[in-house]
Amino acid sequence: MAAIGRLSQKLLKSAALTQTRQLSAAAAHGEQAAKTWKILSFVVALPGVAVCMLNMYLRAQQHQHEQPEFIPYSHLRIRSKRFPWGDGSKSLFHNPHVNALPDGYEQHDH
């Protein structure tokens, strides 16, 4: 009976040791994977974002923004009451280059 007890203890120790080795190998693999993704983030992703930002900036510099012709559609820019700020006809985030008033675009110098 004692022999069976010793044998079962040796088997349990062996299984625990094997499992510990597997876990440490998995942890080492996880550390290596994290290191790889960190390097990829700095070497590939950030320069890629920077190149895309530069591309859009340069395109915006080349493009001339012209206002489209104002067409006074009856269902757009309806003001049933005045806005509580400013002169009451401009929305809170009004941009005179893009947003038209009910009677047309504001005149501005380029």
Structural account:
The structure is a single chain. This protein has about 110 residues and is mostly helical. It has a domain of about 60 residues. Helices cover about 55% and strands about 0% of the residues. It has 1 helix and no strands. It is elongated and about 100 Å long.
Tally of DSSP β-strands: 0
Q: How are helices and strands ordered from N to C?
A: H
Number of helices: 1
* Share of helix, binned: 55-70%
Q: What Rg, in angstroms, do the CA atoms define?
A: 34 Å
- Name the beta content range: under 5%
The N- and C-terminal alpha carbons lie at a distance of 99 Å
- Label the structural class: mainly alpha
Low-confidence stretches: none
Mean pLDDT: 82
**What does the main sheet amount to?**
none
Shape: elongated
Could you give the topology of this structure?
Layout: H1 2-62
Entry summary:
This protein is an all-alpha fold and 110 residues long. The chain has one helix spanning 2-62.
Task: Write out key terms for the chains shown.
mainly alpha, 55% helix, 110 residues
